[in-house]
Amino acid sequence: MRMVRKKRNRVKHFFLALLLFVVMFGGAFFGIQYFTKTGLFRIPGIVYYDESLTDVEKELLQSIFTEEVDLDKDVTISAENSLTKPESKDNEYLYQVFVPVTDFYSTETNITIEDPNSSFIDSTQTEIGYTMIDFDDLDFQKKLLSINDKYYLDNFDSGAIFRTIKFDSEKFEDEIKPLVEKNFIKTFPEKSSVLTFAQTGVTALSRGMNAKLVATGGDATYFATNIKDFLSSFDLTHTSNESSFTTFANSQNICSDTRFIDTLTAIGLDIVELTGNHNQDCGNDAALNSIDIYEQNNIKMVGGGRTAEEAAKPLEIDEKDTHITFLAYNLSTGGATYGNTPGANQYYEENAITEINAAKERGDFVIVDIQYYECNAYASEYEDATCDRANSSAGDQVGFFRHLIDLGADVVVGTSAHQPQTFELYGDGAIYYGLGNLFFDQIWWPGTTRSLVLVHYFYKGKPLQTKIVPTVYDSSMQTKLLDEDTSKWFLERLISVKP
Question: What is the reported pTM?
Answer without folding.
Answer: 0.90
